[in-house]
């Protein structure tokens, strides 16, 4: 079996909603084209910032259909299939494969506490149900479970488990995975905090929610690394890391609202609605977001206090 590998900047895309709260297919298509035009190397739909946990099965299916159709083979499409139940994840995987997705990203959600043995069985079962390559997704800030690097290394021995999105704040976790896993295993930092350390240790790219706002800094940073121009990459790093200031204005549960409001503020009109119980930014938080965007150069400072 020839397994496709992934690399580069792969934005975990938002799920836009219309004024009635349903899927805004027009903006979703527009957003996919915007990101591809900016040079991204893949599209990841049904992600955390994409509010996958708050979508119905019918909505998830439609997101898959629209994204695969709109991308039309220009870059790989990764589909999030995470769920509490492995059986449900397997069903999503089969649908994604049938629709033409190029890979799967799976986060194991927890109701009862998850152990590494449970996670191992989940990913082995999922990988065995599909011919698509699978990326593990680790995001302990939202799941309460942090998969051990040793478990990741064991999973990397399975042919179609090809990588991990490691969204952690301690770079040592990501670096340990890079140390233990085979060289062909694709490690993607999911946080700007660990980006430099991970890239310099051999990560294959990045999967950052802030790329929805503007992927250009990440694309330029990655291409510099890929070409071997480490000095240029390091000089470009602040433009990527500065985006972290935007998402740091509020707790993690505000992330989808922050990203959507930032997209709207830079001149790409979008309904900033998020699915309850996710919170929307308050007026005060929105003003703070604007201030941060001015500070890092994404917005011009208001003239005469306007």
Task: Describe, in plain words, how this protein is organized in 3D.
The structure is a single chain. Helix 4 packs parallel to helix 6 and helix 6 (149-155) packs parallel to helix 7 (171-180). The longest helix has 15 residues, at 57-71. The model has no long low-confidence stretch (mean pLDDT 96). This protein has 13 helices and eight strands. Strands 2-3-4-5-6-7 form a six-stranded parallel beta sheet. A two-stranded parallel sheet has the order 1-8. It has a single domain (8-305), classed as Aldolase class I (TIM Barrel, Alpha-Beta Barrel). With 306 residues, it is an alpha/beta fold. Helix content is 43%, strand content 10%.
Order of helices and strands: EHEHEHEHEHHEHEHEHHHHH
Mean pLDDT metric? 96
- Describe the largest sheet: 6 strands, parallel
Q: N- to C-terminal separation?
A: 60 Å
Question: Based on CA inertia axes, which overall geometry fits?
Answer: globular
- Rg, please? 18 Å
Features:
13 helices, two-stranded parallel sheet, TIM Barrel, six-stranded parallel sheet, globular
Topology record:
Layout: E1 8-9, H1 25-37, E2 43-45, H2 57-71, E3 77-80, H3 86-99, E4 103-106, H4 116-128, E5 134-138, H5 140-143, H6 149-155, E6 161-166, H7 171-180, E7 186-189, H8 195-200, E8 205-206, H9 216-226, H10 230-241, H11 244-247, H12 255-265, H13 283-295
Parallel strand pairs: 1-8, 2-3, 3-4, 4-5, 5-6, 6-7
Structure in a nutshell:
The protein has 306 residues and is an alpha/beta fold.
